[in-house]
Amino acid sequence: MLFDSAYLSLIGRVLLGLIFLVSGINKIADPQGTQQYMTSMGMTWMTTLFYLGAVTVELAGSLSLLLGYRARAGAGLLFLFLIPTTVIFHTHADPNQMIHFLKNLSIMGGLLYVASYGAGRLSMDAGLERADRAAAPPRTLKKVVHQ
């Protein structure tokens, strides 16, 4: 095989997680601008709560994917986050918004892939699983005597 699947899944997770990490950092850098944009898109109440939720989900989910720690849960969380985000912010008649809508659908497909198949061999999840197997006492076979 030309490329090892462990490296490909690592690269895929990094590419998926990077967009959410950058988005979360940008929201932290401009909280007022983010909340004003939310208001302009029709979210006229509790924008601070939604802002904090978006930052938390984007940062936690992206770190989960980047590190491969609880990656299935992180991918599922980001998938659920993208449903209302896509509907609220990217379903307008503007052709540019259609591109963002389709981009989000593509990202959701990648997140479903991680949620289904896990983070791969080069992840904290796999490392913790290997450590648990190594620490577990060896299983002994019991002799069964038939009477």
Characterise the protein shown here.
Helix content is 75%, strand content 0%. By secondary structure, the protein is an all-alpha fold. The chain has six helices and no strands. The chain is elongated, with a radius of gyration of 21 Å. It has one domain.
Query: What number is the mean pLDDT?
Result: 93
| Termini separation | 52 Å
Number of strands: 0
Write down the domain tally. 1
Dominant shape: elongated
Please bin the fraction of helical residues.
over 70%
Class based on secondary structure composition and strand pairing: mainly alpha
Beta-strand content: under 5%
Main beta sheet strand tally, sense and closure:
none
Indicate the radius of gyration in whole angstroms: 21 Å
Q: What count of helical segments does DSSP give? A: 6
Helix and strand element order: HHHHHH
